[in-house]
Amino acid sequence: MKEISLLDGSIGQELVKRSGEKPTPLWSTTVMLDDTKLLSEVHDEYFSMGATIATTNTYPVLKDRLERVGLEDRLEELWDKAVDTAISSKNRNGYGQVAGSIGPLHASYRPDLIPDAIEGSKQYNDVINHLGAKCDILLIETVSSIEHAKAALIAAKNIEIPVWMAFTTEDFDGTKLRSGEELSLVKNLFNTYKIDVVLVNCSRPEVTKDSLRIIADLDRPFGAYANGFTEITPGFLEDFPTVDALKERHDLNPQEYSKFAMEWVEMGATIIGGCCEVGPKHIEQLAKDLKNNGHKIV
């Protein structure tokens, strides 16, 4: 029997799906300006399905992204709305933790756009300190290169809460980051930076097992939360993409996704959940299968 932390699934995409509106690059962010009711519903449902960690809806709420739409002066307002909504949901649930999500600068899966570590750390500094003061966990997500990791970790050097870093790998090679660098290079970060948990996220579940074989040897708690895309398409790597440039898999139902996740647990993973296109029903199945296999969800 293992103690397993169960993350939630997709937040931004779940909001888009429930709204029924056409996605825009920042729709899941701007929806919070008017009303957080929809976001509350998403967090509440994940907790009801068995998740023990609520991920804040702050992944793309970064200055460089909001500048494109003239909303950079509302950064702190959006951070606070997202965090407070997640905390309120946790309190209603009576149990759990809130993970402050921080996505890549400029765009996901684009290590070529990440500035050098020193400049990147300056851009990350405000969001990391703001979320670090209010959340239970700092979750740095979809890290696609070693330089990207360093940028965020330099900014997080004085954060007191646990720092969880989630790396994203190539679609068909789980041993390589999306930059083409070997995932094993992550171990070189530990001598200099604070990383409490190592994760793999927003990668195809088929290659995640190969990634976990590498990070299982890094002497840190580890885990994974994969995506439900067929692959990251060239269209999504263009400037200012929206999720409709990606294709949802229809073969990755809750039962199939859970089979992958149970393999990760067998390998020693103690944190699992879902990323893009993995929703509440998937988390419900994970909770069921974890309990049926004698594990305790914490």
Summed up, the helix count is 10
List low-pLDDT spans.
none
The CATH homologous superfamily: Homocysteine-binding-like domain
Q: Helical amount among residues, as a percent range?
A: 25-40%
- Across the major sheet, the strand order is 2-3-4-5-8-9-10-1-11
Can you tell me the overall shape? globular
CATH topology: TIM Barrel
What's the CATH architecture name? Alpha-Beta Barrel
Give me the strand/helix succession.
Answer: EHHHEHHEHEHEEEEHEHEHE
User: Distance between termini?
Assistant: 12 Å
What would your notes on this structure say?
- By secondary structure, the protein is an alpha/beta fold.
- The protein has one domain (3-297): TIM Barrel (Alpha-Beta Barrel), CATH 3.20.20.
- The protein is built from ten helices and eleven strands.
- The protein has helices spanning 12-19, 27-34, 37-49, 63-66, 75-93, 117-132, 146-155, 205-215, 254-266, 280-292, and strands spanning 3-6, 53-55, 97-102, 137-143, 163-167, 169-170, 173-177, 197-201, 222-226, 271-274, 296-297.
- It has a nine-stranded parallel β-sheet. The chain has a two-stranded antiparallel sheet with strand order 6-7.
- Strand 9 (222-226), helix 9 (254-266) and strand 10 form a beta-alpha-beta unit.
- Helix 3 packs parallel to helix 10, helix 6 crosses helix 7 and helix 9 packs across helix 10 (280-292).
- The longest helix has 19 residues, at 75-93.
- The model has no long low-confidence stretch (mean pLDDT 92).
